[in-house]
Design brief:
disordered N terminus, mainly alpha, Growth Hormone, Chain: A, single chain, 4% strand, Glutaredoxin
Length: 430
């Protein structure tokens, strides 16, 4: 079967027996989820600008790392959001839960666009930013799971893979939308103005997307499965205790969380977002080229979500899932090595021929974690490692005798590090 024949089969399979109402279900669920994913990923794509505005109390490298940690905070609360809004959906319905999650996400995003930076309100700025990010994570956990359930409850049994794959494909569309909005803005207003205030525009534009998504979702009806469940009184009276307190149910939750979801997550997020970080921060590829590569890859791969959803309707979910996980495990390291080879061959050659080694007394090397920007890392080891990390380079460690000043070895050249401590201070040679 050729690719063309497969594509036609997917289209015909999706259209078979689909009424206008059923099409509206997919469109409404997909549009709202695209909007939420757009909101959710803005912080990752604008990490440099957010770091400068909200984490300016620390050095640029630490600020960028804290921004990524703040972005990750939303992911940590996604399971909690799924549990909370999953229960809300069982009590009041999928439609009203949709409306709550989308307003929560859109409201948090708009507030980020208006939030004063560190220079205006100090430490309150990053605290509020992380709080809003956590609210986004809760909302997204309820939104994405709710959209999947809503569409699945409308779908015929033999087409659930195809229908729900349309929702999964919105992750690529939402990411693409964010890139398409951000990239032209950089050109229109200039890099300096974009870093100062222009980065707020993509967040504020979400208010338009929010209004459009609400308008579409207000036209939705409850899913037939939910209405049937309510009529029969088949809802659980104690869902938390039944789900987590009974092993026959808990074992499926654990398999789904640490097996199915974890496997998909460790493949998808490194492919989408660590690629962005890797190209710009490690391989030093310019932002325009990086965005072009990511947009091209997203456009080319987005149809595959629906294709493999359709395939799961034909041969089953398990074979398709296992194929994806195995391919991810086997290919992810070679793919990043290939990126290095073609994006920055000089760096690849340098790392092989002239590896960077930090030679230092291990007792003088601190864990450089400084969320408040008050700690001082002044030992020669800390200064050496901070400089290398700031340049986006990998390094190896080599122990020196106690009290010895740190040195950086690059190939055959040895460069002494700077000791930022007062002469004669304890623990390190002056």
């Amino acid at each position: 079967m050729t690719i063309s024949e497969i594509s036609n089969a997917v289209i015909n399979h999706a259209r078979k027996g689909m009424t206008s109402k059923e099409k509206q279900v997919i469109v409404a669920a997909s549009v709202g989820t695209v909007f939420e994913i757009y909101d959710f990923f803005l912080m990752g794509l604008l990490a440099n600008e957010i770091a400068k505005n909200f984490f300016s109390g620390v050095n640029p490298t630490e600020g960028f790392i804290f921004t990524l940690l703040g972005w990750a905070a939303g992911f940590l609360l996604r399971p909690f959001g799924a549990l909370v809004f999953g229960r809300v959906g069982d009590l009041v319905g999928r439609k009203y839960t949709f409306l709550v999650t989308i307003v929560l996400m859109g409201g948090a995003t708009c507030i980020i666009g208006l939030l004063p930076g560190y220079g205006s309100i100090g430490i309150a700025a990053p605290i509020i930013l992380i709080t809003l990010r956590m609210l986004q994570g809760i909302a997204f956990g309820g939104e994405f799971g709710g959209a999947m359930i809503y569409v699945a409850e409308h779908a015929p049994n033999q087409q659930r893979g195809t229908w729900t794959a349309c929702i999964v494909s919105t992750t690529a569309v939402g990411f693409l939308l964010a890139v398409v909005v951000i990239t032209p803005l950089r050109y229109l207003i200039g890099e300096a103005d974009f870093a100062a205030w222009g980065w707020r525009i993509p967040f504020l534009l979400s208010s338009i997307l929010l209004a459009f998504s609400l308008w579409i979702r207000l036209k939705l009806d409850e899913s037939p499965e939910f209405m049937k469940m309510k009529e029969q009184g088949a809802g659980s009276k104690a869902p938390i205790s039944e789900t987590f307190g009974q092993w026959k149910h808990l074992k499926f939750v654990l398999v789904a969380l640490f097996g199915i979801v974890r496997g998909a997550t460790v493949v998808w997020y490194p492919a989408q977002f660590y690629t962005l970080f890797f190209l710009t921060r490690v391989l030093k590829v310019d932002a325009d080229t990086t965005n072009l590569l990511l947009v091209s890859a997203t456009v080319l791969t987005a149809p595959l979500y629906v294709l493999f959803g359709w395939l799961s309707d034909r041969i089953g979910r398990k074979p398709v899932y296992l194929l994806g996980v195995v391919l991810g495990a086997v290919l992810i390291i070679p793919l990043f090595q290939t990126l290095t080879h073609y994006a920055n061959p000089a760096l690849e050659r340098a790392l092989k021929e002239t590896p960077v080694v930090v030679m230092a007394d291990p007792d003088q090397c601190s864990l450089q974690f400084n969320p408040l920007g008050t700690a001082k890392f002044t030992s020669s080891c800390d200064i050496a490692k901070g400089s290398i990390v700031g340049a986006g380079l990998n390094y190896q460690n080599q122990a020196l005798p106690a009290g010895a000043a740190a040195q950086i070895k690059i190939g055959g050249q040895v460069i002494p590090s700077i000791n930022g401590r007062p002469p004669g201070s304890a623990g390190e040679a002056a």
